Every structure is written in C-alpha cells, then in structure tokens.
C-alpha cells in the first residue's frame, strides 16, 4: 500500500527549510505552492514563496497588486507566523549579482555593456541560473523558516538543476579564451569564429553582427573576468543545498495520463540527481458523495426512469432525476479512470508517498481558497 504524504508533518518540521514544487503546466502547481506557504505560515512559521512562473495568479490569490523581485508581506494571515511572496525578476537578479560582486566602476561598465544586457535578458539558461542565485540569496539571508519555490511548468521545471553546468560552461576559461581569440587573429578568422559563435547566441544577440559583437564580448569578458569563478561556485553551492537535509521536493500532478507521465519524469530525474523527494501531490481529484452508487447502477436507473416517464404524471420530475443519475454515472466513470491512472503510477513507484487533493468547486482567487486547498493538503476532506 502506498504511503500517505503528510504535508503538515513536513512543514511543521523545523528542519525543513526549502520546499520545491515541480510539475507540468495546468496541474495547480502555483496554487499548491501558495497554499503550502499559507498553511505553514498559519501554523507558526515565517515563510517566503518564490515563484518563477510568470503567471499572475499567485499575486491575485494573495491579495497583492503585484509580485516582483522583493519579498512582499501577505496580509490576512492568521496565527503567529508570517507569509511573504515574490516573483523572480531574472535581469534584476543578475544586476544585483553584478553590483554585489564587482567594484562600482566595473559594475557600471558591465551593466551598460550590450552583450551583458542581452545575456541577462534572455540567454538560454539564465533564468534557471538566476533562480538558483535568488534561492541561494534567500537561504543565506536566513530571515525565513521556510522557502517555498514554485518552478516553471513542464520539464523545464528541472532545468535549474542543470543551471550551474549550463551557464558555468559558457563562462568558464575555455569559452572565454575562445571568445577573445578573434581580437588576436583578426580578418577572416575572426568572421569564421563569429559565424560559429553566433550558433551559441540566441534571441536579441542573433541580431548583432560583425566586429561590434566581438568588441562587446571582449569588453564584457574583461569587466567580468574576476566574477566568473563566483558564478559557478555559488550555483554549485545552491545545487548542493538542494540535495542537503532540510530540502524537500514535491511533484505536483493531476490524475491524468499525460500529467502523471511528466510526474514520472520528474521522479526519475530527482532520483538520478539524488534529490530528496518528499512525495507526489495528486491534485484536482474527483470525488462523489455517493460512491456506493456505481456508474452501471446509475445508468440502469436512469434508463428505467426514462422508459417509465412518459407513462406517468410526474414525467418532468423523473426526467430530471434521470439526468442527474447520468451526470453521477459520468462522474463515477471519471473517478474510475483517474483511479486506474493513479494505480498505474503507483505500480511503478510504490515507494513514493502520495496525497490526493480533491478538486474545489471553483477557481482559487483569494486566501480563503488557498486555505481550503491547504486544508486538503493537510488531509482534511473539505
């Protein structure tokens, strides 16, 4: 029998300092992260929720007009704890790193450099790397008992695990020497390098041509030279933090084939990287107030009512009752399909603890909605 995931025990444990929620899009991952943050705060912990998802639902549900790179206090939290929330601003975080680790004059040269501006705004891997930087900053500040991280949807949710090597390999010595080589060679060799190098550069950098690009790169490299080692060192440190005791990963999924297939990918990847998986949150599970009435029995009763309806004076009432029975049958069929899908996952991953969260009647748009989700995460039926 699959173990029950105990969310309350996880967030009540003072040793739990980081909870990372990952999962595919459309499964309620952002809402789950916010609900966990709120529940932990109302159970007495100082919590900050960091979202990397650009959706604005988190801010709206917490009653905030906006989320940005600065933690903002969420009002209306009951109990002795405190909840803050923020959304990763990739470029601002990169700017903060430069300002914190470079002399003022050198920092200004970096921030004004066109190559840096493109890199910080959209180079592949920068967002995930900066998520690692921000998580490391929050943990180092030690102002919160618990940090809840809401990752981007789909498989990119785990790209931040690769961030140290992805951006680090770009910034290491070999690449830097390659980038500066054209200035020493010049002429056709420089243009040949440029044609190859352009393959490494995406987005806005792809619109920059000729020697100007090389000049910008060289200026960037010169200004950043003393910082390269620090980038990799800090990212590696945060990566190790994610593997350390006190960190817990929660995979969020819906009871649907595609969502659980993605969940399986996350579980496998976390296991391969030796990351601490706490369990699976199976979200938006359908339930019924009359589970003893099977779909088959409900359909049979509906057919009987429809056959007799035209022969009685209460035809309208019996037609309505038949319609409700058919709706119940459809719900029971959905529940049966969800159960089979869940059981297939469990058969492959019997050791992964699971908590099933029943679907709410409507969308979550305020703290009460998050509170209701938190109650279900804690094991309450309603």
From TrEMBL:
Note the CDD domains from the entry: ArsA
Q: Where is the ArsA/GET3 Anion-transporting ATPase-like domain?
A: 16-285
A molecular function annotated in GO for this UniProt entry is: ATP binding
- Entry-linked Pfam families: ArsA_ATPase (PF02374)
What is the official name of this protein in its record? ArsA family ATPase
Species this protein is from: Kitasatospora camelliae
